[in-house]
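Here is the promised in-class demo. Please do not try to memorize the tokens; focus on the logic of going from shape to residues.
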């Protein structure tokens, strides 16, 4: 199960990376088209879709690597059972919030498909297509939070130290 979940998070991160490459291609295409005096409609919209998809699909991978911003001011003052209780409460709240976010993201994409909702931009893209990136990313994030909660309840979750969070600054 651990390999399956880690593969899910890594797979979503790889798709997010591919979306970032696509975003770069859209931006470069837009720049080149302006310099050569021709217009490719929709490049700005597609760049936005790819950026949103990349952001949402990378959330779970970022969470599992301990790279999300954590406010540890309260945690630093707690020890033992109180600290673990706060961690469990925070993870349970994150599970609930991310599950709600996932449900409503999937619902939004579903409704956009049902109503044939299209972009108001000149590309006229059916909105459910770019909304899939958000919906899938939100679902994988909810799975990752449940994974973190289960690991914490089992006592197997890797603790993030306060100085470890500084390595990316």
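The designed amino acids, position by position:
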């Amino acid at each position: 199960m651990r390999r399956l979940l880690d593969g899910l998070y890594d797979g979503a991160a790889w798709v997010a990376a591919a979306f970032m490459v696509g975003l770069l291609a859209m931006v470069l295409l837009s720049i080149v088209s302006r310099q050569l005096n021709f217009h490719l409609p929709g490049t700005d919209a597609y760049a936005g879709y790819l950026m949103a998809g990349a952001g949402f699909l990378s959330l779970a991978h970022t969470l599992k690597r301990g790279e999300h911003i954590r406010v540890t001011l309260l945690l630093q003052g707690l020890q033992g059972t109180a600290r673990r209780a706060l961690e469990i409460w925070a993870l349970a709240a994150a599970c609930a919030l991310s599950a709600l976010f996932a449900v409503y993201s999937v619902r939004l994409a579903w409704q956009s498909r049902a109503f044939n909702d299209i972009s108001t931009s000149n590309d006229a893209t059916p909105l459910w297509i770019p909304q899939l990136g958000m919906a899938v990313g939100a679902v994988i994030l909810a799975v990752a939070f449940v994974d973190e909660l289960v690991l914490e309840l089992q006592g197997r979750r890797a603790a993030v130290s306060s100085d470890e969070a500084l390595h990316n600054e």
